[in-house]
Protein backbone atom coordinates (compact mmCIF):
# COMPACT_ATOMS: atom_id res chain seq x y z
CA UNK A 1 0.00 0.00 0.00
CA UNK A 2 0.75 3.72 -0.15
CA UNK A 3 2.39 3.66 -3.58
CA UNK A 4 1.45 6.10 -6.34
CA UNK A 5 -0.73 4.63 -9.10
CA UNK A 6 -1.01 6.36 -12.48
CA UNK A 7 -3.98 5.73 -14.77
CA UNK A 8 -3.67 6.55 -18.47
CA UNK A 9 -6.99 7.34 -20.15
CA UNK A 10 -7.67 6.48 -23.80
CA UNK A 11 -8.70 9.19 -26.26
CA UNK A 12 -12.44 8.40 -25.91
CA UNK A 13 -12.25 8.56 -22.09
CA UNK A 14 -10.85 12.10 -21.96
CA UNK A 15 -14.00 13.91 -20.93
CA UNK A 16 -15.25 17.15 -19.40
CA UNK A 17 -13.95 18.55 -16.13
CA UNK A 18 -17.16 17.78 -14.23
CA UNK A 19 -16.57 14.00 -14.51
CA UNK A 20 -15.08 12.46 -11.37
CA UNK A 21 -12.98 9.28 -11.69
CA UNK A 22 -12.33 6.82 -8.88
CA UNK A 23 -10.92 3.30 -8.50
CA UNK A 24 -12.65 0.41 -6.72
CA UNK A 25 -10.44 -2.45 -5.47
CA UNK A 26 -12.47 -5.58 -4.63
CA UNK A 27 -10.68 -8.23 -2.53
CA UNK A 28 -11.92 -11.40 -0.84
CA UNK A 29 -12.78 -9.68 2.47
CA UNK A 30 -12.10 -5.96 1.97
CA UNK A 31 -13.11 -3.36 -0.61
CA UNK A 32 -11.36 -0.01 -1.18
CA UNK A 33 -12.59 3.02 -3.08
CA UNK A 34 -10.04 5.74 -3.88
CA UNK A 35 -10.59 9.16 -5.39
CA UNK A 36 -8.17 10.36 -8.08
CA UNK A 37 -6.59 13.62 -9.09
CA UNK A 38 -6.22 14.71 -12.70
CA UNK A 39 -2.62 15.40 -13.73
CA UNK A 40 -3.66 16.33 -17.29
CA UNK A 41 -6.62 15.48 -19.58
CA UNK A 42 -5.25 11.98 -20.19
CA UNK A 43 -3.75 10.99 -16.82
CA UNK A 44 -5.01 10.35 -13.29
CA UNK A 45 -3.10 9.73 -10.08
CA UNK A 46 -4.05 8.06 -6.81
CA UNK A 47 -2.58 6.08 -3.89
CA UNK A 48 -2.73 2.29 -3.65
CA UNK A 49 -4.58 1.04 -0.55
CA UNK A 50 -2.92 -1.03 2.15
CA UNK A 51 -4.61 -4.42 1.79
CA UNK A 52 -5.30 -7.03 4.50
CA UNK A 53 -3.68 -9.96 2.67
CA UNK A 54 -1.59 -10.88 -0.37
CA UNK A 55 -3.94 -11.67 -3.26
CA UNK A 56 -5.04 -10.61 -6.74
CA UNK A 57 -7.99 -8.23 -6.62
CA UNK A 58 -10.27 -6.77 -9.28
CA UNK A 59 -9.90 -3.03 -9.95
CA UNK A 60 -12.62 -1.01 -11.67
CA UNK A 61 -12.10 2.52 -13.00
CA UNK A 62 -15.42 4.29 -12.50
CA UNK A 63 -16.66 7.66 -13.78
CA UNK A 64 -19.29 9.72 -11.99
CA UNK A 65 -21.16 12.80 -13.20
CA UNK A 66 -23.99 14.61 -11.48
CA UNK A 67 -27.36 13.54 -12.82
CA UNK A 68 -25.93 10.48 -14.62
CA UNK A 69 -25.49 6.81 -13.56
CA UNK A 70 -22.02 5.65 -12.49
CA UNK A 71 -20.11 4.26 -15.47
CA UNK A 72 -17.49 1.49 -15.26
CA UNK A 73 -14.87 2.68 -17.75
CA UNK A 74 -12.41 -0.23 -17.48
CA UNK A 75 -11.53 -3.26 -15.33
CA UNK A 76 -8.18 -4.83 -14.57
CA UNK A 77 -6.55 -7.15 -12.03
CA UNK A 78 -4.13 -5.82 -9.41
CA UNK A 79 -1.83 -7.99 -7.32
CA UNK A 80 -0.85 -7.35 -3.71
CA UNK A 81 2.43 -9.22 -3.20
CA UNK A 82 4.18 -10.50 -0.11
CA UNK A 83 7.59 -8.83 -0.04
CA UNK A 84 10.53 -8.83 2.37
CA UNK A 85 9.15 -5.86 4.31
CA UNK A 86 5.85 -7.67 4.92
CA UNK A 87 7.72 -10.82 5.99
CA UNK A 88 9.93 -8.82 8.35
CA UNK A 89 6.97 -7.02 9.95
CA UNK A 90 5.04 -10.28 10.32
CA UNK A 91 8.05 -12.00 11.90
CA UNK A 92 8.73 -9.16 14.35
CA UNK A 93 5.06 -8.82 15.32
CA UNK A 94 4.70 -12.57 15.86
CA UNK A 95 7.88 -12.96 17.93
CA UNK A 96 7.72 -9.78 20.01
CA UNK A 97 9.06 -10.82 23.41
CA UNK A 98 10.64 -14.05 22.11
CA UNK A 99 14.25 -13.70 23.25
CA UNK A 100 15.65 -16.37 20.95
CA UNK A 101 14.06 -14.72 17.90
CA UNK A 102 15.05 -11.18 18.90
CA UNK A 103 18.64 -12.22 19.62
CA UNK A 104 18.70 -13.89 16.22
CA UNK A 105 17.83 -10.53 14.56
CA UNK A 106 21.01 -9.05 16.03
CA UNK A 107 23.07 -10.55 13.22
CA UNK A 108 21.61 -7.68 11.14
CA UNK A 109 23.69 -5.35 13.28
CA UNK A 110 26.85 -6.85 11.79
CA UNK A 111 25.50 -6.86 8.23
CA UNK A 112 23.68 -3.56 8.43
CA UNK A 113 22.53 -2.13 5.07
CA UNK A 114 24.32 0.98 3.75
CA UNK A 115 23.04 4.29 5.14
CA UNK A 116 21.25 5.07 1.87
CA UNK A 117 19.19 1.86 2.17
CA UNK A 118 18.28 2.25 5.85
CA UNK A 119 15.72 4.99 5.08
CA UNK A 120 14.08 2.80 2.42
CA UNK A 121 14.03 -0.21 4.78
CA UNK A 122 12.60 1.93 7.59
CA UNK A 123 9.76 3.30 5.45
CA UNK A 124 8.85 -0.11 4.02
CA UNK A 125 8.85 -2.05 7.33
CA UNK A 126 6.98 0.72 9.18
CA UNK A 127 4.30 0.81 6.45
CA UNK A 128 4.00 -2.99 6.52
CA UNK A 129 3.52 -2.84 10.30
CA UNK A 130 0.76 -0.24 9.88
CA UNK A 131 -1.09 -2.53 7.46
CA UNK A 132 -0.82 -5.67 9.63
CA UNK A 133 -3.93 -6.69 11.54
CA UNK A 134 -2.42 -6.75 15.02
CA UNK A 135 -4.51 -8.50 17.72
CA UNK A 136 -6.20 -6.20 20.23
CA UNK A 137 -3.95 -7.60 22.99
CA UNK A 138 -0.72 -7.14 20.99
CA UNK A 139 2.12 -5.52 22.95
CA UNK A 140 5.62 -4.32 21.99
CA UNK A 141 7.01 -6.41 24.88
CA UNK A 142 5.29 -9.60 23.78
CA UNK A 143 2.48 -11.62 25.33
CA UNK A 144 4.09 -12.13 28.78
CA UNK A 145 3.24 -8.94 30.64
CA UNK A 146 4.05 -10.48 34.04
CA UNK A 147 7.76 -9.75 33.53
CA UNK A 148 8.99 -6.72 35.45
CA UNK A 149 11.01 -3.88 33.97
CA UNK A 150 14.02 -5.03 36.00
CA UNK A 151 14.52 -8.26 34.04
CA UNK A 152 17.19 -7.67 31.33
CA UNK A 153 15.86 -8.61 27.92
CA UNK A 154 15.89 -7.67 24.26
CA UNK A 155 12.84 -5.81 22.92
CA UNK A 156 11.48 -4.77 19.53
CA UNK A 157 12.48 -1.23 20.46
CA UNK A 158 16.12 -2.33 20.87
CA UNK A 159 15.89 -3.88 17.38
CA UNK A 160 14.50 -0.68 15.80
CA UNK A 161 17.07 1.56 17.51
CA UNK A 162 20.04 -0.70 16.74
CA UNK A 163 19.36 -0.38 13.00
CA UNK A 164 18.43 3.31 13.25
CA UNK A 165 14.84 2.73 12.08
CA UNK A 166 13.28 6.08 12.98
CA UNK A 167 9.75 5.50 11.63
CA UNK A 168 9.48 1.99 13.04
CA UNK A 169 10.55 3.29 16.47
CA UNK A 170 7.84 5.97 16.23
CA UNK A 171 5.21 3.36 15.31
CA UNK A 172 6.24 1.14 18.26
CA UNK A 173 6.07 4.12 20.62
CA UNK A 174 2.37 4.51 19.81
CA UNK A 175 1.62 0.84 20.62
CA UNK A 176 0.91 -0.75 24.05
CA UNK A 177 4.22 -1.31 25.84
CA UNK A 178 6.12 1.10 23.57
CA UNK A 179 6.94 3.66 26.26
CA UNK A 180 7.71 0.97 28.84
CA UNK A 181 10.26 -0.58 26.44
CA UNK A 182 12.35 2.62 26.55
CA UNK A 183 13.53 1.89 30.11
CA UNK A 184 14.22 -1.85 29.72
CA UNK A 185 17.89 -2.94 29.76
CA UNK A 186 19.15 -5.76 27.57
CA UNK A 187 21.83 -8.25 28.68
CA UNK A 188 24.55 -5.68 27.91
CA UNK A 189 22.82 -3.15 30.16
CA UNK A 190 21.68 -0.91 27.28
CA UNK A 191 18.23 0.65 27.03
CA UNK A 192 16.89 1.74 23.63
CA UNK A 193 17.53 5.35 24.71
CA UNK A 194 21.18 4.73 25.70
CA UNK A 195 21.70 2.67 22.54
CA UNK A 196 20.54 5.58 20.36
CA UNK A 197 22.91 7.93 22.19
CA UNK A 198 25.82 5.51 21.98
CA UNK A 199 25.38 5.08 18.23
CA UNK A 200 25.06 8.80 17.55
CA UNK A 201 21.48 8.60 16.28
CA UNK A 202 20.55 12.12 17.36
CA UNK A 203 17.13 12.29 15.68
CA UNK A 204 16.22 8.91 17.12
CA UNK A 205 17.40 9.89 20.61
CA UNK A 206 15.33 13.08 20.36
CA UNK A 207 12.29 11.07 19.24
CA UNK A 208 12.59 8.75 22.24
CA UNK A 209 13.21 11.41 24.88
CA UNK A 210 11.13 14.46 23.90
CA UNK A 211 7.45 14.33 24.86
CA UNK A 212 6.45 16.65 22.01
CA UNK A 213 8.66 14.99 19.37
CA UNK A 214 6.99 15.05 15.94
CA UNK A 215 6.47 12.03 13.73
CA UNK A 216 9.28 11.51 11.17
CA UNK A 217 8.43 12.52 7.60
CA UNK A 218 6.84 9.64 5.70
CA UNK A 219 3.72 8.73 3.75
CA UNK A 220 1.95 8.12 7.05
CA UNK A 221 2.71 11.71 8.11
CA UNK A 222 1.03 12.90 4.94
CA UNK A 223 -2.15 10.97 5.70
CA UNK A 224 -4.89 10.97 8.30
CA UNK A 225 -7.21 8.01 8.95
CA UNK A 226 -10.60 7.97 10.69
CA UNK A 227 -12.04 4.58 11.74
CA UNK A 228 -15.74 3.83 12.29
CA UNK A 229 -16.76 0.20 12.82
CA UNK A 230 -15.99 -1.81 9.68
CA UNK A 231 -15.14 1.34 7.72
CA UNK A 232 -12.18 3.69 7.57
CA UNK A 233 -11.52 6.85 5.58
CA UNK A 234 -7.98 7.94 4.82
CA UNK A 235 -6.95 11.33 3.45
CA UNK A 236 -3.58 11.65 1.72
CA UNK A 237 -2.66 15.30 2.02
CA UNK A 238 0.21 14.97 -0.46
CA UNK A 239 -2.03 14.17 -3.46
CA UNK A 240 -5.29 15.30 -1.81
CA UNK A 241 -7.00 11.96 -2.47
CA UNK A 242 -9.38 10.05 -0.22
CA UNK A 243 -9.68 6.32 0.35
CA UNK A 244 -12.71 4.50 1.79
CA UNK A 245 -12.04 0.95 3.05
CA UNK A 246 -14.90 -1.37 4.00
CA UNK A 247 -14.81 -4.90 5.38
CA UNK A 248 -17.20 -7.24 3.57
Automatic annotation (TrEMBL):
Q: Which GO terms describe its molecular function?
A: MAP-kinase scaffold activity
User: Domain of life of the organism in this record?
Assistant: Eukaryota
Give start-end of the signal peptide. none
Q: Name one GO cellular component term.
A: membrane
Q: Which GO terms describe its biological process?
A: adrenergic receptor signaling pathway; positive regulation of canonical NF-kappaB signal transduction; regulation of Rho protein signal transduction
- Cross-referenced PANTHER family: A-KINASE ANCHOR PROTEIN 13, AGAP007712-PA
The name on file for this protein is AKP13 protein
Amino acid sequence: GDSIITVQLTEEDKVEDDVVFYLVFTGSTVQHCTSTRKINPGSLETISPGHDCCETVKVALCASREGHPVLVVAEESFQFVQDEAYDAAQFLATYAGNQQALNFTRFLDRSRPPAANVDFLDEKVALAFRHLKLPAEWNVLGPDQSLTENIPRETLMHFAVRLGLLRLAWFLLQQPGGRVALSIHNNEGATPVSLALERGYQKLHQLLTEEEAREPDSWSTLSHTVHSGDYSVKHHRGLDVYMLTAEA
